[in-house]
Amino acid sequence: MLIVMSPEATADQVEDVLKLVRELGFKPHPMPGATRTAIGVTGNSGPIDPSHFEFMPGVGEAIRVSKPYKLVGRDLKHEDSVVKVGEFTIGGPIPAIIAGPCAVESFEQTMEIAETVAACGVNFFRGGAFKPRTSPYSFQGLGEEGLKILAEVRNKFGMRIVTEVLDQENVDLVEEYADVLQIGARNMQNFTLLRRVGQAKKPVLLKRGMSATLDELLLAAEYIMSEGNYDVILCERGVRTFADHTRNTLDLSIVPAVQGLSHLPIIVDPSHGTGRRDKVTPLARAAIAVGADGIMIEVHTHPERALSDGPQALLPDMFVKLVEEVRSIHKVLEKNEGAS
Amino acid sequence: MLIVMSPEATADQVEDVLKLVRELGFKPHPMPGATRTAIGVTGNSGPIDPSHFEFMPGVGEAIRVSKPYKLVGRDLKHEDSVVKVGEFTIGGPIPAIIAGPCAVESFEQTMEIAETVAACGVNFFRGGAFKPRTSPYSFQGLGEEGLKILAEVRNKFGMRIVTEVLDQENVDLVEEYADVLQIGARNMQNFTLLRRVGQAKKPVLLKRGMSATLDELLLAAEYIMSEGNYDVILCERGVRTFADHTRNTLDLSIVPAVQGLSHLPIIVDPSHGTGRRDKVTPLARAAIAVGADGIMIEVHTHPERALSDGPQALLPDMFVKLVEEVRSIHKVLEKNEGAS
Amino acid sequence: MLIVMSPEATADQVEDVLKLVRELGFKPHPMPGATRTAIGVTGNSGPIDPSHFEFMPGVGEAIRVSKPYKLVGRDLKHEDSVVKVGEFTIGGPIPAIIAGPCAVESFEQTMEIAETVAACGVNFFRGGAFKPRTSPYSFQGLGEEGLKILAEVRNKFGMRIVTEVLDQENVDLVEEYADVLQIGARNMQNFTLLRRVGQAKKPVLLKRGMSATLDELLLAAEYIMSEGNYDVILCERGVRTFADHTRNTLDLSIVPAVQGLSHLPIIVDPSHGTGRRDKVTPLARAAIAVGADGIMIEVHTHPERALSDGPQALLPDMFVKLVEEVRSIHKVLEKNEGAS
Amino acid sequence: MLIVMSPEATADQVEDVLKLVRELGFKPHPMPGATRTAIGVTGNSGPIDPSHFEFMPGVGEAIRVSKPYKLVGRDLKHEDSVVKVGEFTIGGPIPAIIAGPCAVESFEQTMEIAETVAACGVNFFRGGAFKPRTSPYSFQGLGEEGLKILAEVRNKFGMRIVTEVLDQENVDLVEEYADVLQIGARNMQNFTLLRRVGQAKKPVLLKRGMSATLDELLLAAEYIMSEGNYDVILCERGVRTFADHTRNTLDLSIVPAVQGLSHLPIIVDPSHGTGRRDKVTPLARAAIAVGADGIMIEVHTHPERALSDGPQALLPDMFVKLVEEVRSIHKVLEKNEGAS
Predict the structure, then answer these.
(1) Residue A257 and residue D248: Cα distance in Å, rounded?
(2) Under 8 Å CB-to-CB from A47, ≥6 apart: which residues?
């Protein structure tokens, strides 16, 4: 921590700060400057709460230097984490593709989409059985019936199932059926739910909240890991900004930013990130080009009849083309990686 | 709904849209323009999902016109709602003041602060027994012990207790002790929790999410009301923006905006809204001047030792002055109201 | 400046940083910590560019501590500045009210509005003769003819004139007619224009840019002052956020934030800040309650015929009531100020 | 335009709106609904100002349907525009690469960087001779001397020169030396400057403002085109959001959004868009993958000594690798384009 005194701070006020630093068991390093004194603080094992100092007379600012997370950080574990999901992985050399409808609506709809998706060699199938909806009057998902349909997809097509959990209680249920438990953006700071999936035996896909900073996203992952579940996959899905040409603003720069600080894999969801079908393919290509560990794509054979988020679902032929493009782009990265 | 065709739409494409509108049981109103045709849709009882049309060839845009909420709106109930909390009210002619520490830390700390607050004639005491914290390593609250301390405050000082609920399970517990159940900003779209407090017998204080739009805030309240609990109080507590001079950007314009659309009372929390002690008093005055139904203020007798959010807590003498100022400002509004 | 080394930094890398600090003429203060070393830098008269260090091997972060502005800051001039405009002032004990139409549209329109405004005892009249419009096809103002009408308002009603300048060239012209030169939000970082009004003999009203940080606003004022014009008034007029219930989000917290760092007066424009008539009065009251040095309000006798921004202009009777309310609220603040 | 009456609107109020629509020369289409009446308006050649109606009693909302721009839109010109710059083009099948230092600092520095860049087969060289700086105390550029150095780069290496213009006056000067006139983000709504470059004989590179919407960007281009200069290239360079892991948030989704509405080429500047060297390469790859018509990259042989924006400049070897990668990614897109 660095404590910056205000220019009018008296010598006594500086002394009081030094004293408190020592009382808290840390070591102060006073640095008198031309207009103001700064005091470095060392000897702390974790971050120090700036509020201890900010209130003190003569203190201008207290600036945190240490990062508040541990388990998610590269300081603790340098090499990239690879999350195993059955026989497949997320975070390894090949980017993962997770595809399927926004919601499981019926057996027929789900199987039809699964067939399309599986035909592209996709390993992960997505589909919501429990849907968090902005309005209480919107379709809320099929519940356990939906989970059974998803299990059927796994049996028939061999794809691993990614599906959302909404609360502690349905984690018990979803855990029986799914391969990856998804935490939606609205629940990124539902700490009870984070702790619960931290005790689960299945990997967790954690979506970034709509206005979550990088630190908040990493601390949400830290909640899960602090309960013992180290299989966490992060997911960028667009943030809230003033921009109105897409539903959310997809922030691809968080991919290299996460990769710099954390060993966890990070994927991108351009379907929610843009909310419009015609922007999903270009931004899926961009997600792979930026270096993401995978993409999550909504596909629907009849988006006009979809019970949620139809306008962002790709039609089967658009999806087939997208898979080809992202695989070709990934080859470029791979080759250059090898070359360097 | 208004469907705007693209300039290149063919007559057949327009005809297809008209047909689908009729099939869905609505009435189309085609309006041919110089460059493009627009089609009004009527006959719907609630909002129509634009995705039915957006995918169709020739359609440029589908614009929603009806509001998606019912129970919270003034269309259904024109007069202002007044929420009863024991012998007191929130939403009536006198703005409510809710004050206390961020977290209940100990019996002594809580009683000391309660005494200060009660001496100002404040009717509502706040304090967290269960704390949602960004880091898993931060103080998480005293739990039931904290609730017992809060109940003691009610017994001794006659103030009504406002405290946060974090998940379904602790609603059962908190309901026994508290007078108002608070939903924090991070849980504004925790729909499971919203439904659960919608079944509770206590009023709910619903805080606006960090990047929630006005519609999303009202729909979150709709979730609670749709379960039968009509005693909902909204609360503005600052939103996420690029601005870095306060922790959040307090959006006071939402107060008149809510009051225009909804009958529910709305209060303001300038403590979280600014995150800095020196800005709490000016923004509390502003909140009353803008017409809010109350304010929620963090007070601490020893903020430097607070276990959470110390830098935003007012000292007792600052709080005493604030209460005087906001009461005087409210008198100005009241007088002018009477005069008009 | 504080340089934080990364945890893996070698002793040699730390040494290289210390060496460069000394070469640049500053004094390094190394502080070895448990996981990483931090290096304080003193001896600089102004801010140091972090880029000197950020590129170096082993450096994690370089954190700026000194503020980049001088003339606008309270470090240099502690007491509040009061800007004289003819016989009136902005920044003194009485909040200034600046009112008038968005644009000068005609002699009759302007005189009619001026009469209404003057009757309330308002000292400053606003009205645009040169209008910055988002579309090239919108009304762009009457130009010099508009300035002549404004001069007529001053002659007839004794109010001082505030009007916008758009570029270097029209500063020459506007300076002849106006009493205060307004820089609009879109021009807050038009540095050529800032320098030009810095050489003018008239006070400058500088509006905050739509996404300007506090530092950027103060540095824009620094540009003007660095050319010798010390009569600068700042103005908050709303910023861009995701919120869609007002045209902009009025950020009243910047008022106490500016007052903490700078001696310059700051006023608030709730007309542009909200963009909707029904929110102007509540937010004007809030602006005074937060402690602003004045407000700027758009008034129109026939807003439905206004050539720009009609929906945010107050009708005369609404304005009369607003003036009463804000004066009463100001009395409350004044009385409490006296008491403290 | 669509006018939505409020639920309480009386028949007379509806009639008044219909009357005004007719008086303004348009055709009203009333559509009575279950709870409220909507009125479509047709017969207008351009957009109608909603303020004509918003003030009227009984009107809930007036929703604009027509787009406010003409010349930039695909309605007027369907095929993509290709901007000629000497013997090269921007907007054609091959993405343009524009590279060079942030600022021209000296003859030697510029030539050294130019040599590096030219060796990669880059056709466009960038470098600022006039620099818009947030602080009046920062380096402001070499002025005409810088322009002469840039002209020398063109002579020696055959690259075309892109450089910024700050105000009307220096357009005269810059036009003599440069091949493309750049308008910076802070000047995107400096309408005087837009009109001036609209009269220039050189292509204009228009950067998106820090909080500009898609419509505002297109209308800024419309200002230039409305003066007769049709050679406009748009540029995304990051927007202001709450996110703090990059200097700005690069909004790649605006690329397909612009391409849907406008025929103008759009390029991406990941150097300013991220502000950090380690994120420039991944986001440059992403920009090409999303379909941008080019990228603009800052390169410096000695970024630690750069007078501005050193931390975002690539070192020569990083740039060489980036050029290879983006060309390979472009080939993937090209091949797939051909295949579809």
Answers:
(1) 13
(2) A1, A64, A66, A67, A68
pLDDT at residue D98 tops 80: yes
Q: Under an 8 A CB cutoff, do B168 and A168 touch?
A: yes
- For residue range A122-179, list pLDDT tens digits in order: 999 999 999 998 888 888 899 999 999 999 999 999 999 999 999 988 899 999 999 9
| CATH (residue range D83-339) | 3.20.20.70
Q: Where are the beta strands (DSSP E) in D117-230?
A: 124-126, 160-164, 180-183, 204-207
**Probe site for chain D from A252, A276, A277, A337 (most D CB atoms < 10 A):** A252
**pLDDT more than 70, % of chain B:** 96
ipTM score assigned to the predicted complex: 0.90
What backbone phi and psi angles, to 5 degrees, belong to B334?
-60, -45
> Is D119's Cβ below 8 Å from some Cβ in B?
no
pLDDT digits (tens, 9 = 90+) for D242-273: 999 999 999 999 999 999 999 999 999 999 98
Structure tokens at B226: 């749709």
| CATH superfamily of the B2-63 domain | Phospho-2-dehydro-3-deoxyheptonate aldolase; domain 1 (3.30.70.1140)
CB contact under 8 A, D286 and A282: no
Tens of pLDDT, residues D12-51: 999 999 998 888 888 888 887 767 788 888 776 666 777 7
Report chain B residues whose CB lies below 8 A from the CB of D43: 33-34
Q: Do B44 and D34 touch (CB under 8 A)?
A: yes
Burial of residue D329 (CB within 10 Å: 0-12, 13-18, 19+) is buried
Report the half-sphere exposure of D147 (CA within 13 A, side-chain side): 17
Is the minimum CB–CB distance between A70 and chain C shorter than 8 Å?
no
pLDDT of D47 reads 65
Smallest Cα distance from A242 to chain D, Å:
7
Mean pLDDT of the B172-197 span: 96
pTM of the model: 0.92
Ranges of H-type helices in D179-297: 191-198, 214-226, 254-261, 270-274, 277-290
Residue A238 to residue B211: CA distance in whole angstroms: 13
Domain ranges, ordered by start, for chain A: 2-63, 83-339
CA B292 from centroid of its chain's CA atoms: 12
State the chains in contact with B (3 or more Cβ–Cβ pairs under 8 Å): A, C, D
* Window 231-260 of D, Cβ < 8 Å to A: 239, 241-246, 249-257, 260
D192 at interface of C, judged by CB pairs closer than 8 A: yes
CA nearest to C271 within chain B: B253
